[in-house]
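Morning!

As promised:
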Amino acid sequence: MIRILDILRNQTKQQRFETQVKPHLESMYKQAFRYTGNRADAEDLIQDVLLEAFEKRQNLKAVNNVGSWLNRCLYHRFVDRYRSAKRVPDQLDVHSAELQAQLVGDSLDESGYFAQQLLDGIEQLSFEQKSAIKLHDLCGHSLAEVSGIMQMPIGTLKSHLHRGRKQLQKQLQLKPEMQAYRLESRG
Amino acid sequence: MNCETVEDFLSTAQRSDFELAPENLILHHAKQCAACQQSIANSKRYLNSLETLEEPELGVGGAQRILSHLNAEIERKSHTKTQGVTPWWRNGFSLGFASASFLCIAIVMLLSLNSAPEPRVPVAELNRGVHEQNISLVIDVPRDMNQANLILEFPADLRWRGLEAMEKIEWPVNLQKGENILELPVRYTFGKLPKTPQVITASIRYGETNRSFALPVSLSTQLSGRELQTEFSL
């Protein structure tokens, strides 16, 4: 009897938690996808954050804006993962350009190529610069929102964004743009 | 409105800002300032390039998948918590299992000590005869050259990685006075590596001026990591 009551109590807690987080999943996913670069890792990252949030659901009651709280947790979890991945230097990064080139092979179409060029450029930036660019330019968050997520003063954030964009523009400066080039196919 | 204000505006501008911003003021200043015109064009180009990126969508199915995995994980955790946890060394089955595992590991280790180590195949060799290399193309120009055209022609089996179907590519570039560096990842796709250098023909067209350069590329057998720097100047 106690066990059944326990299960029912747990289910109610889960349902309540689900109702709270469900409206924010889409936005979390967009952000997680920009951090990780692929769907599977993005979902995995969200699961990690939600599991932690469920365990700390008591804190969630005091939170005014659940969406931005979750976005902040997502960012911090990603930073943790990034740091622990950096501590294992021998591990082959599955997103490395070298390995991706081998896996993708000839299947990369032209629009994929231009997108890849841009993503490669972003990955070469410093961690703060690329986070600022991903959150502000790719996810469309406002400066105030990004400042909240990264817990960084707006002035510092603007400087990261400015430097990151400059460097990215420099990297892309000589590369051909989509619809702005002429190509001749073989044969 | 001055250059600093324009620069400040551009440092965080998003696409929509160009429609909503006091564009008349910016444009008014930019009409008289070539440097700002260039900065605005670069900024717009950068923001437009973001359009090429895939917009990820989770959808209903994805959300459901995440939530059901989450629920399963919560169930699993709460189940482990509610179960009276007996130390494994007091559990006869666990103790037996641990002893058997220890014995197995010992046997495997003994066997592996007696056998010759298996040759490890490096990742590079798993590649299906595709050889890649990064080339840095350094273009040295005596002055700013906006809207110059850069043309690259590739030999038969050598291609720009990602644009393998193209043997010739031409696109407009804004060259700045001094060194301009183009990172060029190339891929050699067929047969054995050639012993003689492959030649990429690079041309720059700027107004009436048109100059071509032959860029010999020696391909190494390494997939990447080795960078070749090829310079040419106008």
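Chain B touches chain A through 63 residues (CB under 8 Å).

Hope this helps with the figure draft.
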